[in-house]
Design a protein that fits this description.
alpha/beta, nine-stranded mixed β-sheet, Dihydrodipicolinate Reductase, domain 2, six-stranded parallel β-sheet
């Protein structure tokens, strides 16, 4: 963390010159409202924002996949089924994973696929090839940013598994590189493509819930059965070294789309707190390690954010305790409510439910739509990227019930048709920055922290989230 903060301090000169903050307190500047302000580096000369970025159409999207563990091996299977995608090369530190991926493709008569392995630098040879358009990054978290930066430096679009970055320094580096190269840098947030989230987003866009006033998201997932599956214990090691919400995007991404973050609204101020690390040290011992002197990540982290339009956001992270899996996903509007966990449900104002009579013996008075009633409501607001045939294909190919395939399909579809991607580099930076920003709040007595505007002023150029389609396709074709 000290290295990150010292690097950011260099960029603080611009803020000091602007006179927008008070004197240094605790190593940071504070604004007039007492919120900590991290430096926003000046945009490099000659660069402009990449809002709505498009790149030339690609008849075939030639892909190199880096990292073939739990996520990468699944990506090989899915991307080999996406129309217009061609896996050209695969890479992993471990040679046996590369050979396994190549064999799986060869068994399907997929064609020749190059392989790279043997070191953490092997990805560079893949990125230096002249027959790759997209580098798809599925490594451990520490290597996400180095691979993506090198890929863009060598003329490749980048797509990065979550969390795509942790430090503010890395978030800014990816933003600057995307703006410099005019290449896409997409966060591979699959939960934005889960079916309930897709339906609810469309309903929110059409005003079913009225004005959205509050949203919630989380990643509550007991990882006890999985810690040993991570290569060289990298995930537990990351949690041991880093405080804050280190894995925010599964819950955060979909609700940011509902709010239209940097599409008419922006994240303003964050406050975070955590519990002590109760279970983390136990897991270190269980994995064969010594009793740690320190385990930075608390069992439960909670983050609150307020937006420019006065909406509030609640985010949670808990991978240490035996709670049922939940991404929370709640949308609270002036006229309605949506929730996915523990039961999918909608609740609308009574006037939207055909004026059903009130049962005065039921003090609650509301009607919650679940099951068949929920499906009937969703059917009135179909997601524009889904057709019946496409849904069936997504469920057949799979990947968390099909959402992974929908994500990959949309990425390739947009690249083939020269369209803006569903998620851009600013989404990546905003969603991932919660990691370090929440840590800064916690380490300063749960103080408010200003969320940087990674667009540097372009957050209201667009009005709401939308999907792009090729001319003639129409909002439900995407073929």
């Amino acid at each position: 963390m000290k290295k990150i903060f010292s690097a950011l301090a260099i960029a603080a000169i611009a803020l000091m010159a602007a006179g927008c903050c008070s004197k240094t307190e605790g190593g940071f500047k504070k604004n007039s409202e007492g919120a900590i302000v991290t430096p926003v580096p000046a945009r490099p000369a000659g660069q402009t924002d990449v809002i709505g970025l498009v790149t030339p159409k690609l008849e075939t999207v030639r892909i190199g996949i880096v990292g073939l563990g739990m996520r990468g091996s699944g990506a090989v299977t899915r991307l080999s089924r996406v129309p217009g995608a061609k896996i050209v090369a695969v890479c992993d530190v471990e040679a046996d994973r590369v050979e396994k991926a190549k064999k799986a493709l060869a068994d399907r008569e997929y064609g020749e696929v190059a392989g790279y392995s043997g070191s953490t630098e092997a990805f560079k040879e893949l990125c230096e090839r002249d027959d790759i358009d997209l580098v798809y990054v599925c490594t451990d978290w520490v290597h996400h940013v180095p691979v993506a930066l090198y890929a863009m430096e060598h003329g490749k679009n980048a797509a990065i598994e979550v969390p795509s970055a942790y430090s503010l320094e890395d978030c800014w580096a990816l933003v600057n590189m995307s703006e410099k190269t005019r290449l896409h840098c997409m966060i591979l947030e699959n939960c934005c493509y889960d079916f309930f989230e897709l339906s609810t987003l469309e309903m929110a866009k059409q005003g079913v819930f009225g004005d959205i006033v509050h949203v919630e998201g989380s990643y509550n997932h007991n990882l006890d059965p999985f810690w040993h599956e991570y290569w060289q214990n990298w995930r537990l090691d990351f949690n041991q070294k880093h405080r804050g919400d280190v894995y925010p995007t599964h819950g955060f991404g979909p609700i940011c789309q509902v709010l239209g973050i940097h599409r008419g609204d922006k994240l303003n101020t964050l406050v975070a707190m955590d519990t002590k690390a109760f279970n983390g040290p136990k897991h270190v011992r269980a994995q064969g390690g010594q009793d740690p002197d320190n385990f930075a990540n608390g069992d439960v982290t909670t983050t609150m954010i307020r937006t420019e339009k006065g909406r509030s956001i609640l985010i949670e992270h808990d991978v240490m305790n035996p709670r049922p899996y939940s991404r929370m996903y709640q949308v609270v509007g002036t006229d309605g409510y949506a929730a996915k966990y523990p039961v999918q449900q909608y609740c609308l104002r009574r006037e939207f439910l055909n004026g059903e009579p009130i049962d005065y013996s039921n003090l609650k008075g509301e009607r919650t739509l679940m099951g068949e009633a929920l499906a009937e409501l969703q059917a009135k607001y179909p997601c524009p990227i889904l057709t019946e045939d496409f849904v069936n294909l997504a469920k057949e190919v799979g990947g968390h019930g099909g959402m992974d395939f929908i994500m990959d399909y949309r990425l390739v579809y947009c690249l083939r048709n020269g369209l803006p991607l569903d998620m851009d580099v600013y989404d990546l930076a905003e969603w991932c920055s919660i990691g370090e920003l929440s840590a800064i709040s916690m380490e300063n007595g749960n103080a408010p922290v200003v969320v940087p505007d990674f667009t540097r002023g372009a957050w209201n150029k667009l009005n709401g989230f939308s999907y792009a389609f090729a001319p003639g396709d129409g909002p439900a074709a995407a073929k």
